[in-house]
Amino acid sequence: MTPNAPSRPTRVAVLGASGRMGAAACRAVEEAPDLELVARIGRGDELSAITEAGAEVAIDLTIPSVTAENVRWLVEHGIHAVVGTTGWTEESLEALRTQLEGAEGVGVLIAPNFAIGAVLAMRFAEIAARYYDSAEIIEMHHENKLDAPSGTARHTAAAIARGRAEAGLGPVPDATEKDPDGARGAVVDGIHVHAVRQRGLVAHEVVQFGGVGEQFVLRHDSFDRISFMPGVLLGVREVAAHPGLTVGLDGYMDLG
Amino acid sequence: MTPNAPSRPTRVAVLGASGRMGAAACRAVEEAPDLELVARIGRGDELSAITEAGAEVAIDLTIPSVTAENVRWLVEHGIHAVVGTTGWTEESLEALRTQLEGAEGVGVLIAPNFAIGAVLAMRFAEIAARYYDSAEIIEMHHENKLDAPSGTARHTAAAIARGRAEAGLGPVPDATEKDPDGARGAVVDGIHVHAVRQRGLVAHEVVQFGGVGEQFVLRHDSFDRISFMPGVLLGVREVAAHPGLTVGLDGYMDLG
Amino acid sequence: MTPNAPSRPTRVAVLGASGRMGAAACRAVEEAPDLELVARIGRGDELSAITEAGAEVAIDLTIPSVTAENVRWLVEHGIHAVVGTTGWTEESLEALRTQLEGAEGVGVLIAPNFAIGAVLAMRFAEIAARYYDSAEIIEMHHENKLDAPSGTARHTAAAIARGRAEAGLGPVPDATEKDPDGARGAVVDGIHVHAVRQRGLVAHEVVQFGGVGEQFVLRHDSFDRISFMPGVLLGVREVAAHPGLTVGLDGYMDLG
Amino acid sequence: MTPNAPSRPTRVAVLGASGRMGAAACRAVEEAPDLELVARIGRGDELSAITEAGAEVAIDLTIPSVTAENVRWLVEHGIHAVVGTTGWTEESLEALRTQLEGAEGVGVLIAPNFAIGAVLAMRFAEIAARYYDSAEIIEMHHENKLDAPSGTARHTAAAIARGRAEAGLGPVPDATEKDPDGARGAVVDGIHVHAVRQRGLVAHEVVQFGGVGEQFVLRHDSFDRISFMPGVLLGVREVAAHPGLTVGLDGYMDLG
């Protein structure tokens, strides 16, 4: 997407600029004609460099132990924040909401997943789930991933379960009587989830729906970390127009 | 989907009951606990049998030359109509709209495609199109299909073009300079469309979206004509709650 | 495939002609110009009808408890046999081999799977396995299947394990440390196997291979029981040219 | 694949070491425990550095205008050559064959495609083609590719045509009467070939076969240039055992 360039570029700071995601975000901001990278904050750098540089929006791609503190500081100084770091708890989110009530016009986006395709897959899965008897998830990742299934697959299973509940659907049909080795995979919120680990892959999700005589499939492939950047930039461009706290990139997307 | 059975089954007539689609509809209505098949109308049968049987909803699966006349008769007699026959023109639709203004509470659904999955694919394609640089369609059918590409693929291309226009996206990127044999396929509303014809297939559509480092795919497979029946039944169940004319099954679906 | 029609059609009997597979085989033989259906043997029919009809080849699609006895009778009477019934043991196969030594020129084919595509997938999987670090299987079936994973998936896993052993490959790479719900599926001969159960599907197998920067995929879809018939006819046409016992349709296929 | 490391590493030179493929080859050789990189030859470097370094095998990844001359020099000096450069003609191949007759024990491999998966797909496609009525190819590449369809797709179409001819199959079934925009794609050796161009993709090929009630699919995905390296290393390890000229990596692979 190439939005209309505003008259003046938005001034952006990146926290966690020396990490892999942070470095990719710096490059993405630099290449966007409507954005200007004014501060790269790495470990040990003072946050005051952000205000000194006149940043309007900050991207936090740091680590769980410092992100909440960073965002509190940013809101305190009237800087919008786009946050990709995990580790937020109900308590830290609640504290942030309270702080934002007193910070008029400041927006914060906390997004566990900046891949637009993963967000689309999750949303579409919830809708499609209403219309099909069967639903199953296959997530596929590189061979070095430590946990199974992926967090995205768990979230997608939850979305499917919500869609099925809304439509009054019961359990998925499954006549399996004999599965001595566990080939039917994990069951998350009533939905079977399979995890493939394969050298050469990055991050992929397939959601399959089945009804009498038909199949409906959603698939998202992330071939590269860079695929998160359009989502990050979407957040940066929209955060000022969404005061208060938004959790999930879909809050900024027009999925209706 | 197993909706809550109403206290009394809805009384349903099928027009075109001796055709293949009509016969399948008769079976589907008979097997639905909340519906009752009260009239099968074939070629040469009198329409009056529909009112005599006390039908509340009629399914029209006849042929282009008679469907408009059938529907006019049904509306005249206060019977809701669910129509899968093609051949409607802007003129015949307009005449029907005018008639329906004077027929309070009567609903008509005209749906060119009753496959819920095809409707979902089209709707999701329009939304996803806003977020990706590239979009392309591959439709696949049995080897006896006479035309290419399919009507569904053409409609999907139009939906993608709408989504791209809404997002201010220009033409899809494509550096092709040399394509002597036409491998890049058809271009419909700016979107490349490929048609595969293969023995053993029925009706399949794949929509692929691409951005830097990622891919998003929608796929619908119709393995059997019976896959249209859930859409027909959805229409029958919802038509009374939607007075006036609705074109497209998506008008009855909650896709938000 | 349209083989050259021989001067005189081969005379074929079908045992188990009233079962679903048997009925399909009868139709397939009747439609083949180079074959002639001369006897349909159902439960209770005398086998002598086969010799009386002058059958040269018999297709056995009966049940495990009678197939060995049927085939013994056929070999005794000099009739070639193409057998799709399961239930053969090492003992019954050995007895048949011994009998065939004294029945010069008589051929018997016992094939656990007549789907040519499944045979190809298994053979190609063994070859491809030599060249890839990772290999994983996803089998998908209708929701009424009782066991998981499928027999074909188990055989394919064994074929992959053979291929890896030939190439001196060790275990597949897999860093999974945390998989509380069993998302990584079954492990058969060292290969992860996933079983999807979905309404609307019939029988499908996907074999995925991965190496640094690449993926190789084999996929077979059976949409209908009729997909076994080309394999049955291949057996009927080739059995006379392969005296003695052959186990597996691949013995008749040119896969080199 | 982790072959048994030989007692002494093979000494390897890379020509075209400063190009992208050449640089990747240097890294791959350095990382292989059974190989030793002894010379990197870039533009302007003297070939004599190869013999001075005691190289046993040379990898030529230069450009069409110099590759033939390079290989002639290598053979003259008794060095085995693995060549990935295109631009070889019937004449230059013939001259090389003649030279090799007088160079006992020297092996040369010229491979237009070092992706093992593409070689497998092509070989398997030729075999599978014998058993299916329908066959079609979809190749998919990044949006900057200049020509369509890809060379690999053309070679695969030729392989399918050979397979069909061996089996006595006629033209693929196709009832298309109306295709005003060319959705049926290119026809290469009687096989329909479709080219998709999509941002985020690299190089992908899908080969679909269809018969009554079934489908068989071969798919190869190259996500990265690095996927060619296992093929290059396979060539380096095998070239000494294959004196004379071999065209195509499949000559070194055990595909039987």
Strand content bin of chain A: 25-35%
What structural class is derived from the secondary structure elements of chain A? alpha/beta
| Helical segment count of chain A | 7
Helix-strand string of chain A: EHEHEHEHEHEHEEEEHE
CATH fold type of the largest domain in chain A: Rossmann fold
Overall strand count of chain A: 11
Rg result of chain A: 20 Å
Largest sheet of chain A: 6 strands, parallel
Look at the structure and give the CATH class of the largest domain in chain A: Alpha Beta
CATH superfamily of the largest domain in chain A: NAD(P)-binding Rossmann-like Domain
- Spatially, the strands of the biggest sheet of chain A line up as 2-1-3-4-5-11
For the residues shown, what is the average pLDDT of chain A?
A: 94
List segments of chain A where confidence is low: pLDDT < 50 over at least 5 consecutive residues.
none
Helix amount of chain A, in percent? 25-40%
Number of domains of chain A: 2
In short, what is this structure?
Four copies of one chain form a homotetramer. Chain A has 256 residues and is an alpha/beta fold.
Give your account of this protein's structure.
The structure is a homotetramer of 256-residue chains. By secondary structure, chain A is α/β, with parallel strands linked by helices. Chain A folds into two domains: 128 residues, 3-Layer(aba) Sandwich (Rossmann fold), CATH 3.40.50; 108 residues, Dihydrodipicolinate Reductase, domain 2 (2-Layer Sandwich). Helix content of chain A is 32%, strand content 25%. In chain A, helix 1 crosses helix 7 and helix 3 runs parallel beside helix 4. The radius of gyration of chain A is 20 Å and the shape is elongated. The model of chain A has no long low-confidence stretch (mean pLDDT 94). Chains B and D meet through strand 6, strand 7, strand 8 and strand 9 of B and strand 6, strand 7, strand 8 and strand 9 of D.
